[in-house]
Amino acid sequence: MLIINIKDNESIDRALKRYKKKFERTGTMRELRARTAFEKPSVKRRFEVLRAVYKEKTYGHLED
Predict the structure, then answer these.
(1) Could you give the CA distance from residue 59 to residue 43 in angstroms, rounded to a whole number?
(2) CB of 27 within 8 A of CB of 2?
(3) How many angstroms separate the CA atoms of 26 and 19, rounded?
(4) Residues 47, 36: contact at Cβ < 8 Å?
(5) Contact status, residue 21 vs residue 2, Cβ threshold 8 Å
(6) What distance in Å separates the CA atoms of residue 33 and residue 30, rounded to the nearest whole number?
(7) 45 CB neighbour count, 10 Å cutoff
(8) 2 with 19: CB under 8 angstroms?
(9) Coiled-coil intervals in this record (predicted)?
């Protein structure tokens, strides 16, 4: 459970923004979406490799 301490003179909008950011960093929604359907480990690995190839192709020239 996430706990957000509201500071003195802090608006609800600001506290809600901090809550949303903290919630996003925990990765809860990402995990729930991943659990909706089973994905074989080989498929996960293939996706990771494809993503790495794409990143290398896109951002690889920046290291030169």
Answers:
(1) 24
(2) no
(3) 11
(4) no
(5) no
(6) 5
(7) 10
(8) yes
(9) none
Q: Name the CA radius of gyration of the chain, rounded.
A: 19
Task: Give the Cα separation of 10 and 24 in Å (integer).
Answer: 21
Angle between helices 28-35 and 12-26 (to 10 degrees): 50
What pLDDT digit, counting tens, does each position of 1-57 carry? 889 899 899 999 999 999 999 999 999 999 999 899 999 999 999 999 999 999 999
Cα–Cα dist 4/12, whole Å: 11
